[in-house]
Give the backbone structure.
Amino acid sequence: MNRKTVQSIAASIAIMTALLSAACGNGATTGDANPDTAPALAGETAAASQVASGSASTPAPTPSPSPAPTVLPEQTGPLYRMNKVYRILPIDETKTPDKMVLLTFDDGPKDEEALTSLLDTLDAHHAKAIFFVNGYRVKQHPELLKLIYDRGQTIGNHSWDHIDLKKEERETVEKQIGDVQRDVEAITGQVPHFFRPPYGSGGDTVKEAALKEGLLFMTWSNGSLDWEQKAPGDPDKVIANVMEQLHPGANILMHELKWTAKALDGLLSKLEKEGYGFIDPASIETPAH
């Protein structure tokens, strides 16, 4: 073998060696796995295959739980207050709606049929009200007073007798108010926190006597005039009278009357249609708070 032949063979071997080296070092482009990464890639591929087929022996990692929702603190104080003209207004207008009304019913408890109808309608509309009761009627119908309480409504003090307290002496006024407080507490276990004088008639003496018992003295700012109708009264007139005087914070005066009971569902539906809600008396600021 001559010298040229040997050189030619050596050159060919060098070229082949270079080509083989290049091919091994660039396996990713040729489809060959890199030895350093092949085990990991193979393991990941197998694990993915097992998860997809549901045959993995080790469960997939559990996602981190989402943060717990923010829980606002419960309201610990009153939401509403009464102004000088007996409207019920939000204490903080940025947190509490003002398009609300307070529902009240005077002169009970006396008529189980009318009272039960009123209570059923209030429940149907998820509404609360104050039932201002007279002491002599409580004495006659303690079971009806208990019914009001058991149905989750608020009991208010309307004096013992339905008399004009503004014309009475201090001692009489204090007894008229105090006796109702004691009798209601004896039957329900709770004293009233709201007082409405009969006829809306009360001077300084009456207000002082109410305050002495921890009562919020109020009359009304929206009168249904249901008391002016002779039986049988017209439910539509009750609704019309209230809607005509409607305003935010309306303190609505009604009575435990059969025609008012018939009017109540239509009235509350109309109020809701106008965007009004119903104030829970328990959310009103009183001297007891």
Notes: The chain has a mean pLDDT of 83.
